[in-house]
Design a protein that fits this description.
Helices cover 33% and strands 25% of the residues. It has helices at residues 5-13, 15-21, 50-55, 68-79, 98-105, 118-130, 162-177, 209-212, and strands at residues 24-28, 31-38, 88-92, 110-114, 136-138, 152-156, 181-186, 197-206, 216-224. 44% of the residues are buried. The model has no long low-confidence stretch (mean pLDDT 90). Bound molecules: S-adenosylmethionine.
Length: 227
């Protein structure tokens, strides 16, 4: 199949139009309070294979799915707003920013949604706006930097690849030992560093066979040990 040059060009020159044109505003199963631009069978991205996207020059659109780990974090923050109320929150590897938007809705003072994918930053802004909140975004790779400006770090489904899991483990562990509350939402990934984590809560998250190869994912929120 020839590369879809127009898709790559739109993603670059008019990313808002690309996000809007490749998604449908909808809610994720565990978090009906939050509306997001997500891909599904009505949106073109759903039908594209990884190879198609690669040919189009577009990185995998993680922002177009509400991953079970991010949904679990969002559910926890909406149900237990004291965890973030009045606090400075980093939503690391934010994707759609479902967790960061939940933090703002729960009363966080400020949320930075950080994801190295520039389209994720655009989707995060559009999603925040759709829910009547504001988040700042960053596409910097923050791994290894000081997070002293934050009280709470939330990270949904960051252990989906071994390389990412290994890069963040020591960094986030060290930040937790310096007094930051570091919460990870995870759907049972192999590369999750369990020995450094304490379980907080678990949820069954309705999924789709197209995305996850299962109907329900058991997602858990974990907290990095402070000691
Ligand atoms: C599986 S998605 C999870 C998205 C979202 N947190 C959720 O739960 O729906 C993983 C995300 O990690 C992002 N990512 C990978 N490495 C990163 C890094 N070093 N800094 C920031 N984001 C990163 C990817 O771009 C992708 O959006």
């Amino acid at each position: 199949m020839p590369p879809d040059v127009s898709a790559a060009r739109t993603a670059e020159t008019d990313p808002q139009a690309y996000v809007a044109g490749n998604s449908v505003l909808q809610t994720a199963p565990l978090v009906p309070e939050i509306t997001l631009h997500l891909a599904d069978e009505r949106a073109p991205l759903w039908n594209k294979t990884q190879r198609d996207l690669w040919d189009d020059g577009i990185v995998l659109p993680y922002w177009a799915f509400a991953w079970a780990g991010g949904q679990a974090l969002a559910r926890l923050l909406l149900d237990e707003p004291d965890r973030v109320r009045g606090k400075r929150v980093l939503d690391f590897a934010s994707g759609s920013a479902i967790s960061g938007i939940a933090a703002m809705m729960a009363g966080a003072a400020h949320v930075l949604a950080a994801d190295i994918d520039p389209l994720a930053a655009v989707a995060a802004q559009m999603n925040a706006e759709a829910n009547g909140v504001a988040v700042d975004t960053s596409t910097d790779d923050l791994v290894g930097t000081s997070l002293a400006d934050f009280d709470v770090i939330i990270a949904g489904d960051i252990c989906y690849e071994q390389s990412v899991a290994e890069r963040v483990r020591d960094w986030l562990g060290a930040e937790a030992r310096q007094g930051r509350d570091v919460l990870i939402g995870d759907p049972g990934r192999t590369f999750l560093p369990r020995k450094d984590l304490e379980p907080v809560i678990g949820y069954g998250v309705k999924s789709s066979r197209d995305l996850d190869d299962t109907d329900v994912r058991n997602a858990r929120v974990w907290r990095f040990s402070a000691g």
